[in-house]
From TrEMBL:
This is DUF917 domain-containing protein. It comes from Moorella mulderi DSM 14980. Residues 10-179 form the S-Me-THD N-terminal domain. It comes from the Bacteria. Residues 185-371 form the S-Me-THD-like C-terminal domain.
Length: 383
């Protein structure tokens, strides 16, 4: 794959559309992602990605993210932030880049490449803009091939990597270093508590490895894929075609449901945004109900109360009135939507992958069934 740089508003819109689609309801706010990219471009810096094979294989590589809940802060959280002096005007806007520098100091190395943590409209853009700001190449790859809620859901964890040492710096410059942790799950818990203390998010740098090791566990060429799928969706939207059908075709997936959002609701808890959407079917799905459970990202669905498509397969909701893929905080009662689902990346259809991102990992007592098996058993309800 060739080196790619985002050059104009159309590139940005297409890229954010693809990222939001692969973000499966999570991955952060597209508006924030747009602002991050536009800020770097207006500063004269290039925002883009490099073929992993064209980056120095001996360079130290790090995963960066903005970790926390995708939900909006509550009035009580806002009031307490004010009392603590954690106001917007006091924010340190390059705090995630500072987490990279902090990790360099702790590890005693020079970091020469960045891998995005996932595909998502904010978190992928965080990695790209940190790379642009620091002058470090970002690999055309990520550590999930979708958006995921937990550090331990990432492909490095499937390979037994330790995320530590890791550095965190929040938007007010508060910084912490985790030199050791009992397990990836414990490291996740520590980071989430830091995010809660920061009223939603903190910048994280971890998974320090050489580029050659990173490319062997990452899902490759996913940023180019997001841009390609986003361009197809944007073109369909402008031409008045069915964006959900185009998205499904472009990403080798299926439209698994259409209808109107009947009920939705979420809450910030333990550093995540938890909730459910209930969608009443229309057209071919008239009289049927789809329920989607999310923990930041859409993870489990039920069709008429029977387990349907589940993680690690991808579930994305698209507003059919405008063809825009939705993050979970954007879903509202009364919206007309189409639900598109995709196969999980091969790394997640292994025993380790299912243990880390299958239904059982999230406390559900039913087994994962591949989407193609489920849809065939349903007799083609994905038309």
């Amino acid at each position: 794959m060739a080196t790619t740089f985002l050059k104009d508003a159309e590139d940005i819109e297409a890229f954010l559309t693809g990222l939001t689609f692969f973000g499966t309801g999570g991955g952060g706010d597209p508006g924030r992602g747009r602002k991050l990219i536009e800020t770097e471009l207006s500063s004269g810096r290039k925002v883009g990605w490099y073929d992993p094979d064209e980056v120095d294989q001996d360079a130290w590589c790090v995963r960066v993210s903005r970790t926390g809940s995708t939900g909006a802060p509550t009035p009580a959280m806002i009031e307490l932030k004010e009392k603590l002096g954690m106001r917007e005007e006091n924010q340190f806007h390059y705090h995630i880049a500072e987490a990279v520098r902090e990790l360099e100091t702790v590890a005693g190395v020079k970091i020469g490449a960045i891998v995005p943590p996932e595909l998502g409209a904010s978190n992928t853009c965080v990695a790209l803009t940190v790379g642009a700001y620091l002058g470090i190449p970002v690999l055309d790859a990520d550590y999930a091939g979708r958006a995921i809620p937990e550090l331990c859901n990432t492909t490095p964890c499937l390979s037994g990597w330790k995320i530590w040492p890791l550095a965190t710096v929040d938007a007010w410059g508060n910084r912490c270093v985790v030199k050791e942790a009992l397990s990836p799950q414990v490291a996740e818990r520590i980071v989430r508590h830091l995010a809660v203390a920061s009223f939603g998010h903190t910048g994280v740098a971890g998974f320090l490895k050489k580029v050659r090791d990173a490319r062997n566990v990452a899902v490759l060429y996913t940023l180019s894929e997001a841009l390609q799928v986003g361009r197809a969706m944007l073109e369909a939207r402008l031409e008045g075609r069915d964006v959900a059908e185009v998205a499904a075709a472009s990403a080798s997936g299926w439209v698994i449901f259409r209808g109107e959002v009947f009920k939705t609701g979420g809450e910030n808890r333990d550093g995540f945004f938890w909730g459910e959407h209930v969608i009443k079917g229309e057209g071919s799905w008239q009289g049927r109900t789809l329920r989607i459970w999310y923990k930041n990202e859409n993870l489990i669905s039920w069709l008429d109360d029977i387990p349907y498509i589940t993680a690690p397969d991808l579930i994305s909701v698209i507003d059919t009135s405008n063809g825009i893929p939705l993050t979970n905080p954007q879903v509202a009662a009364g919206q007309k939507v189409a639900v598109v689902a995709l196969r999980a990346r091969p790394q997640y259809r292994t025993p380790d992958g299912l243990a880390n991102l299958g239904p059982g990992h999230f406390g559900f007592d039913f087994e994962y069934r591949p989407i193609e098996e489920v849809l065939n058993a349903k007799g083609g309800c994905h038309q």
